[in-house]
Every structure is written in C-alpha cells, then in structure tokens.
Write a structure and sequence with these properties.
Layout: H1 3-21, E1 26-33, E2 39-46, E3 49-58, H2 72-88, E4 96-105, E5 109-113
Parallel strand pairs: 3-4
Antiparallel strand pairs: 1-2, 2-3, 4-5
C-alpha cells in the first residue's frame, strides 16, 4: 500500500474514533493485528456493548460509498478477528457486541452503519 493511501486510512480511523468518542464510547484498540488473519481497524466500548468497526476511507465517493467494499469475505474476516480478539483480550461485563462499518470520504465526513452485519 502506498504512503498516501496509508495516511488516508489512518485519517479515516481517527475520524471514526472521534465519532465514537463523541457518543460516549472508549477506544479499546486501534489497528489490532492477529498475524496472518489480518487487522481490526477499531474496537470501542460503551458500558456492556463492544463494537468492532471496519473503517473504509476513500478520497472521493465517485464509485459509491466506501462501505460497499465490505463484502461477505471481509465480514467473515472481521468476525474471525473479533473472536480472536476476545480470546486474547477478554472484556468483563460485555454482554452485547456488534459489527459496524464506518465510511469516511475525504472532505465529505463520516457515515457509520451500525450493526452493518
């Protein structure tokens, strides 16, 4: 991945983290890696709810929402990573979890799809 794309991705993750923090969530992990299985972009918590958020950032929305890039294979990967994360980092008191997708377009803001899959 090129440096400008990496910067755009990191910026998208930061925008998403702020969005959650403004809604009372606490960031538990950012860019959590599980070796060959991949990476969770953002894990946030509020009370007994833990959210695994896949962040997609694009320079423009010319080809539609960045969220469209989160297809069935990516959803399966995020679910696997969430399971690995919880095995390695138990979250006492968590009763609920969900999978969100945050679509960030440079200069266009953020749209968070709660319980996207």
């Amino acid at each position: 991945m090129t440096e400008p794309r990496q910067r755009l991705g990191r910026r998208g993750e930061s925008v998403a983290a702020v969005w959650y923090e403004e809604r009372g969530f606490r960031v538990v992990a950012r860019r959590w890696r599980a070796g060959r299985h991949g990476e969770l972009d953002l894990v946030v918590r509020r009370g007994d709810l833990l959210v695994f958020c896949e962040v997609k950032a694009r320079a423009t929305a010319a080809f539609g929402s960045p969220a469209l890039a989160v297809g069935p294979a990516k959803q399966q990967q995020v679910r696997l990573l969430a399971s690995l994360f919880l095995d390695r980092h138990p979250q006492p008191g968590v009763v609920h979890h969900r999978f969100d997708v945050a679509a960030v377009v440079r200069g266009g803001g953020i749209t968070v799809y709660e319980a996207a899959f």
